[in-house]
Amino acid sequence: MSQPASSNTTATADSQANEVAMLRDQVKRLQGMATLGELTGTATHEFNNVLMTVINYAKLGLRNEDKASRDKALTKILEASERAAQITNTILAQARNRSDAMGPVDLSGLVRETLVLMQREMQKYRISVETDLVDTATVHGSGNQIQRLLLNLLTNSRQAIGECGTLWIRVTGVETGEEGIQQIELTVRDSGKGIPEDVLPKIFDPYFSTKSGPDETGKGGTGLGLAACKDIIDEHKGRVRVESSVGRGTAFIIRFPASASQRAAA
Question: Is the pLDDT score of 132 beyond 90?
Answer without folding.
Answer: yes
